[in-house]
Amino acid sequence: xxxxxxxxxxxxxxxxxxxxxxxxxxxxxxxxxxxxxxxxxxxxxxxxxxxxxxxxxxxxxxxxxxxxxxxxxxxxxxxxxxxxxxxxxxxxxxxxxxxxxxxxxxxxxxxxxxxxxxxxxxxxxxxxxxxxxxxxxxxxxxxxxxxxxxxxxxxxxxxxxxxxxxxxxxxxxxxxxxxxxxxxxxxxxxxxxxxxxxxxxxxxxxxxxxxxxxxxxxxxxxxxxxxxxxxxxxxxxxxxxxxxxxxxxxxxxxxxxxxxxxxxxxxxxxxxxxxxxxxxxxxxxxxxxxxxxxxxxxxxxxxxxxxxxxxxxxxxxxxxxxxxxxxxxxxxxxxxxxxxxxxxxxxxxxxxxxxxxxxxxxxxxxxxxxxxxxxxxxxxxxxxxxxxxxxxxxxxxxxxxxxxxxxxxxxxxxxxxxxxxxxxxxxxxxxxxxxxxxxxxxxxxxxxxxxxxxxxxxxxxxxxxxxxxxxxxxxxxxxxxxxxxxxxxxxxxxxxxxxxxxxxxxxxxxx
Length: 511
Fold this sequence. Notes:
Layout (H helix, E strand, L loop, with lengths): L14 H24 L4 H8 L7 H24 L1 H20 L4 H29 L2 H33 L3 H4 L1 H15 L13 H18 L1 H4 L6 H21 L15 H17 L3 H11 L4 H29 L3 H19 L7 H17 L3 H9 L5 H32 L16 H6 L2 H34 L13 H9 L1
């Protein structure tokens, strides 16, 4: 079905100014998304200085919890007050949080500062996609969203390497303090160059809905990480968090039905396109983001590759994402069709996971790398589809809320999937019942320890992990197929072109 309807003209009509603004936005996105990755390799150094190894996981979890809790709220605030100042506030909070992290005097201070960072980082990620919707008409937006996706992937790829290098050269505090000048430059750039489009409605903040949604999302993320934080998904503390999450979700639905300006309007769910893209986003996050760490573990345990050699294989994965994202972005920009790419994306990933279930000890590593490249290409094909789709499906007044919802759903899918994958691998390794000479606990076996084992013991470890990963890849294939079903059910929508509404749009921008 074609939908050649009028679309609002871009907020900025000068192409050069628009491109410079986009570069500022990408700098902010890189800063926010890199932060969680760059900390990973510096954590052992931080623990060595502050101690408190039992709080190790909270340095990462605190940031993720705060980001997840505020994403929908920032989207709605942008709709109510205008995206320029809401985004600048998010960058300011993130920059201040980064400074406090860099000056932390204890583990507790650092964890609290990470929460402050996350309160800004969640707003940056949501606001950038929403500002893109103001800057670019729907078809052109597809191309620029693909560049945004590349920034997300690049931050994930180089974050651990950059974090280790900066920690060695300048100390761990530098990984936080480097955000301060970047944040200041981006703030000044947006203040001078980004016009303010004032929304044509009276702001009414749904405080109860915001609090309940924050509790719901934070509970989901924390419960999904319960195995690491509390030692078991079924620990009493984790069960209490799950109960709190369910109660908050029920309360949120009750409040949103009566709110004048709901944080996430329930009317969005009446649109089948929005609901299907949300499902697709959850599944894409699970197999795209959630699988990254497990690919690394699979390569190191079943093929004997060193961490650096295994890391090199991620060039194939990232290269596939780059090729898929750039290709899809350009073609969507020309044709206005995004459904074929959603279908092709999840089909490629499903095929890749089916092939990985056939991998055994001794399979050539280049063949495994080719399958990873296929999966990466599939992820790249639909990297920007959910955001573009919901922004096109939602009313203009709710674009920010819709963008926040789909961004949150991707992260939520990744968080839940990581927990599921870990439970699958852990349970399968526990069933092996095989005593391997020189291995007291197979789950605590590091790559260096594995390399020092005799050949026969290494072979036994590889076979144990190979067997453990087979059901994980099968589960990932099922997740991809669920997403594929949602993609097949999408309406064959065509993105609209901008028509001659520029005088009105420019008048609004001038105001």
